[in-house]
Structure formats: structure tokens, C-alpha cells
Amino acid sequence: MQCALYDAGRCRSCQWITQPIPEQLSAKTADLKNLLADFPVEEWCAPVSGPEQGFRNKAKMVVSGSVEKPLLGMLHRDGTPEDLCDCPLYPASFAPVFAALKPFIARAGLTPYNVARKRGELKYI
């Protein structure tokens, strides 16, 4: 999967992104077999793989930025925000929802929560 945020070093949420899907499935199957080594398994079914992107059916986005210009995404360890509205894990049907939420937050005057100041009204959407 190609991800501009990952390629730019701005997101590291997808720990397996650089590994091809067949290798991921092999590694995960080996881990599962290792975890269940004490239990007799008569037959292991082949792993099933879904789509490489656009498969998430929900999003929990940190709301940051300002009332006038909210960001939806995550916070880095140092507290800097990263907008994830263009994350390829989300289906295309999420884009208009994200696009509608940002101006709604501004119109409603909802202050994004600021972790450092421990102030604000809206932490997550």
C-alpha cells in the first residue's frame, strides 16, 4: 500500500506497511501457531486476506488544531497534530464526512481539546 503520510515520515501507525501482504500473513500465521502451540489443532485453515486499503469501517479521530481550523487525526508523541483525513485505510465514503465535520466544528464553536493545557470541549470524533 502506498501512503504519502508514511512515506513522508509523518505517520507510523501501520507497522506492517513495508512488508508485502503474503509475508505479513505468513508472519502472523507463525505467531498464531506459536501462541497456540500448547493446544492441539487438527487442521489449520489458510489465512484470508482482505483489501489492502479502504477497509476500515470506523474512525476515531483526535480533534486538534483550533476552533476555526480543526484537524482530525492523531497527535504525535511530542503533541504535534497530524491530519489523517486522507489516510488510505479509510474508504472513500469517509471523505465527505470528514469534510463536513471540520466546518461543523467551527460553526458550532467547539474548542478542540488541548492536552498540554488540559482545556477544550472536543477530544475525539
UniProtKB/TrEMBL annotation:
GO BP terms, alphabetized: rRNA base methylation
InterPro entries per UniProt: SAM-dependent_MTases_sf (IPR029063), U5_MeTrfase_fam (IPR010280)
GO molecular function: rRNA (uridine-C5-)-methyltransferase activity
SUPFAM superfamilies the UniProt entry points to: S-adenosyl-L-methionine-dependent methyltransferases
Range of residues in the leader sequence: none
Keyword Membrane: no
Superkingdom field: Bacteria
Similarity remark: Belongs to the class I-like SAM-binding methyltransferase superfamily. RNA M5U methyltransferase family.
Protein's name according to its UniProt entry: 23S rRNA (Uracil(747)-C(5))-methyltransferase
Keywords: Methyltransferase, S-adenosyl-L-methionine, Transferase
Organism: Escherichia coli
